Amino acid sequence: MQKKNDVNPTTDPQAPARHDAPASAQRRSTLGMLGAGALATLAPWLPAHAADDKWPDKPINYVVPFPPGGLTDVAARQAAKALGTAEHWNVVVENKPGGSANIGAAYVARAQPDGYTWLAMTLSHAANATLFQGKAGYDLLKDLVPVACMASSSMMVVVNPKSPIKTMDDLLQAAKSRSLSAGSSGNGTPPHLTLALYQRLTGAKLLHVPYKGGAPSLTDLIGGQVDVIFSNYPESLAYVKSGTLRALAVSSKKRSAELPDVPTVEEAGLPGLVVANFTGVMAPAGTPKPLVDRISKAIVKQIKQPEMTRSLVTLGFGAQPMEAAEFGPYLKGEVERWAKIIHDANIQVG
Question: Which residues pair with 93 in a beta bridge?
C-alpha cells in the first residue's frame, strides 16, 4: 500500500518523468507540463502530416470558369467523379463563368490556401496573363499555384468542303493571292491565338472575324460566310467526320486516332504551329506543398487510368498528365510563348 506522503510520478505534475516509464507516459507528462500556449508555439515544428490527417473533412470546391456543358466542365466533372470513387473525396464542381474566364480564376486566387478550392484552368488563362495584364483581378503565376495538368486537345484547320483549298499549302497560296477571312470563337481565344501564330509563321494576311463562341463561327463557315477557321478540335470533329467540313491539319504532334487521314501541322511543313489547348488544376498560392503534391498525385493517377483516358478521347482530348513539379515549368513556358505572340500580333481585348 502506498504511504500517505509518497509521490506517484505518473500523477503528480510536479514530479519529473521517470526515465524507466513507458515512452507514451513520458510524452503525456511532458505535454501536460507544456500547456496549450507552448504547444501553439511548437505547432509549426510538428510533423507536416499531422495537420493533413483529417484532410479532406469537407467538400472540395472545383471551380470551372466556363458555362456548364462545355469541354472543360465535362472533363472536370469526370475527374471529380473519379477522385470521389478512388479517393473518397467529395469534389463538387461549381461553374463561375464570365470575364473571359477571369471571374472564376480570381475567385480561386482569393480563396483560403487550404486545399479546398481548385481552379479548372486552360490555355485561355495562360493567354489572359498577357491579354488582361493588371486587369484580370489576379496574377496567374503569383496568386495561383500549379497542381496538375490533365489533358489537352489540338486545334484543327477546317474549311468548307466546297472550298478549292484542300491542303495547308493551298491555304497559304490562296492567302497570298486573294483576301481570305478567318473566323474564331472570339478575340484572344485559342482559335484566334492559333490564327495569329499561323500568320506570324507564314507571313500570310487573313482577315480575322471574331464570333461569340465556336459554334456560331463554324455555322458561318458551313454557310460560306468565312473561308477558314483554326478551330478547337472537339468543336469541329463531328462536322469533319460527317463531311460537313474539310480538315486540312491538326496542331498536335501525332495524327488523331479519330481522323487518321488528316496530317499534322508538322507534316504540313509548320512544326512551329503545334498548339495544345490544355486543361489543368490550380490552387490558391500558399497552399502547403505537401497538400499540393498529394492532390497532384491523386489527379494524375486517375488521368492515367485506361477508363479515364478513353473518356477523354471521346471528348476530343488526349491525356496529358503532369504532376505539379512538371506542370509548373510547362505553364510558365506557355505564358511566355503566348505573350510574345500576343504582343507581335498586337491582339487587344475589351
Answer: 62
> For the segment 167-224, what is each residue's pLDDT rounded down to a tens digit?
999 999 999 999 999 999 999 999 999 999 999 999 999 999 999 999 999 999 999 9
Q: What phi and psi, each to the nearest 5 degrees, are found at residue 45?
A: -95, -5
Radius of gyration in angstroms for the set of CA atoms belonging to the chain, rounded to a whole number: 27
Which residues lie below 8 Å from residue 144, measured CB to CB, with a gap of 6+? 105, 108, 109, 119, 121, 138, 282, 283, 284, 285
Confidence of residue 350 (pLDDT cuts 50, 70, 90): low
SS3 240: helix
The answer to whether the CB of 76 falls within 8 A of the CB of 64 is yes
How high is the mean pLDDT of the chain? 88
Give pTM, 2 decimals: 0.82
Mean pLDDT of 104-128: 98
Cβ burial of 30 (10 Å; 0-12, 13-18, 19+) is: exposed
- What are the structural domains of the chain? 60-153+276-345 (3.40.190.150), 155-273 (3.40.190.10)
DSSP string computed for 302-313: HHTSHHHHHHHH
